[in-house]
Design a protein that fits this description.
The complex is a heterodimer of chains A (278) and B (455). Chain A is of the alpha+beta class and 278 residues long. Chain A contains eleven helices and eight strands. Chain A folds into two domains: 35-89, 3-methyladenine DNA Glycosylase II, Chain A, domain 3; 99-271, no CATH class. In chain A, the strands form four sheets. A two-stranded antiparallel sheet of chain A has the order 1-4. In chain A, strands 2-3 form a two-stranded antiparallel ribbon. In chain A, a hairpin with a 2-residue loop joins β6 (230-233) and β7. In chain B, α1 (126-135) crosses α4, α3 packs parallel to α5 (213-223) and α10 packs across α13. The chains are: A alpha+beta (278), B alpha/beta (455).
Amino acid sequence: MHPVLTTTLAIGGVGAACGGALAMAAKFLAVHEDPRIEETANLLPGANCGGCAYAGCADYAKAIILDDAEINLCAPGGESTLCALAAMMGVEASAAEKKVAIVLCGGDSDKAPRKFAYNGIADCTAANSTGAGDKKCAYGCLGYGSCSRACPTGAIEISKGLATIHPELCIGCGACVKTCPRKLIHMIPASRTMHILCSSKDKGPIVKKACSVGCIGCTKCTKMVEDEAITMQGPLAIVDYTKDYTNEETIEACPGKCIKKVPAVAKAMAGRQGSTVD
Amino acid sequence: MKIENAQFRVDGGIHPVYNKHLAKDNAIQAMPLPSLLRVSMSQHLGAPAKPVVAKGDTVLRGQIIGEPAGFISAAVHAPTSGTVKAIVQAPTATGQSVAAVEIEPDCEDKWRDDIKGNPNWESLEVKELIDLVSDAGVAGMGGAGFPTHVKLSPPPNKTIDTLIINGAECEPYLTADNRLMIEQAENIWTGCRIIMKILGAQTVRVAIEDNKPEAIEAMEMAMASTEGNVAIVKLKTEYPQGAEKQQIFAITGKEVPSAGLPMDVGAVVENVGTTLAVWDAVVNGKPLTERVTSVTGTPVSKPGNIRNRIGTSYGDLIEFCGGTEGDTAKIISGGPMMGFAQSSLEVTTTKTTSGLLLLPPKLVTNYSSTPCISCGRCVDGCPMYLMPCELSQMIEAEDYSAAREINLMDCIECGCCAFQCPAHRPLVQHMRQGKGQVMIMMREEKEKEAEKTKD
């Protein structure tokens, strides 16, 4: 036989045999994945922030379809994602209110002095374990930006040695909460405006020495609000964010000057999405 | 008894400027009682002691004011007689806030009534000797503060054949151990024999660096008539030869395994200060209430080696040394290599305060660090055969498990790497940070393991 013909037949034969095998495999070994998983994944924003506690959007989509996960866990997606998911799954949308992160400390470098000049790694955990942190206040924000580096959307600004979170940029993923060695960052409902920006568990006189905007534990604010919306935990007043606290007179009344109204949260949210979905 | 040169040389290590001349010839001075003593409950490695006195109590010297909390912990005793003024939260040398007992001395300095010496200690059982050491609250006085009674009670499956008495004092500036050996060699040697008996060790090596000839001479006199396998080992001066793993290698040539303890190679290392405290605890029956601290550095008017009560504030110590001359840029508790910079003179001495070092501005430079140039000097200098350059970059990238793989946890934080780094990288701080994170990882793994076995 002519060598050209032999080669053609041999290669053609191998090709046909492999093709046949693949066709059989496709038929008998096929994995049927629920097509809804991909559809659901397409509805999610694809930020892969991990705020829902699943490993990325695809994983969350899988959990929704296969494990009946709640559909209101996606913070960055907000209302639109929730409605789309609800329509697809044929359930009623009941939104968890959007949460944003807040740093419960107001002591920037003008207000809270440092006790020594720190010249080490610019990282809060490292600074916190060097002489227990360079800030006089043992509870205040160190301002070396560990939270800001963890934020996927650049919502955390460090200015004058204090981290401030821009609520309009915060997607509520909670990545910053874990990085703070002093546990100052909390997730709160986005509609809330009144905050006590202090986390110091020291007694009044010590707080006063360390910061000019610290809670001195006078309990005045707790008496001005209803329904125990502010409670004392030792010498520190803490806002209970599940309760209603809107009394703006507390701002002026606070002798420690640590109560602040942060209107940007509610305003920014109104532009982006509602707090609940009917 | 013989004197021999060390047979092995530690790999790595550095030769910093020692500046021991500032205080090495100044005899130990006892400091008069200050107006207030603040005794921290965290005097040792492990769990802080639990205060057992209340405000207003009168205490006698040697009375227990802090009970040990847990296995690795040690008792804390009143350093003098007086009244308990308050129980406060006070910062330690590392900055942590820990409970402390404030005692206002009544200046009578009266010992507890039941203090009883044991001049014929040789007739006591090993168990009784360990109890005496434990009751006296002795903790490693070289710096780490490991409770001595724990070190002296190795598990039954480990035999200890070699006891090393550590008089290397390789930290620059510090001279307290040097003076102790010169002035109290006899007592140190008695302490050493007590520890020998407790451990049943046959071989004893007293390790002294060759920059302390007077100390070698004094120890030689004290040990001259001793029979048996006992020797003074002259070490070539090098930092960090006072670290126990390096010292064991220099003397025996044995390497302590990774994550192991000296007892894994049949050795126990005790600092000369600790040995003296063991002597005091057993022979005189006295709890550990004072120690010798080198107060040194060029800004100190009269540098010296000061015997001070535990709980003396750094401010009082400096004042006793005539205050300062010229500017002081940094105050370090301990030596310049492994000590902790202080931000307050309110901090008080503990059982581990070997030195208080003041540095003038010209010796304190605030470097800014630059990226690693991969020169490998830190690798040459590391006495633990680690690669600090690799480790620090992994830790910077927060890849702690990779750093753990290449033995981050073996780092002894001696600072040889950072000392030589031409890029001025904060290598030791990176290591500390990484070790902290790996500790958290290990704890989490343990918890998971415990949960699994429960199921």
